[in-house]
Amino acid sequence: MDHPFEPVPANLPQGFWRTAAVVAILVAAVELVLLVVTGTALLFGHGSTAPTAHRTPAKTTAAAPPKPAPQHRTVAKAKLTRKQVSVMVLNGNGRPGAAAGAAALVRRRGYTIRTVGNAGRMSYAHSMVMYRPGYEGEGRRLARELGIRRVGPLDGMRPSQLHGAKAVLIVGA
Question: CATH fold of 82-171, please?
Answer without folding.
Answer: Alpha-Beta Plaits (3.30.70)
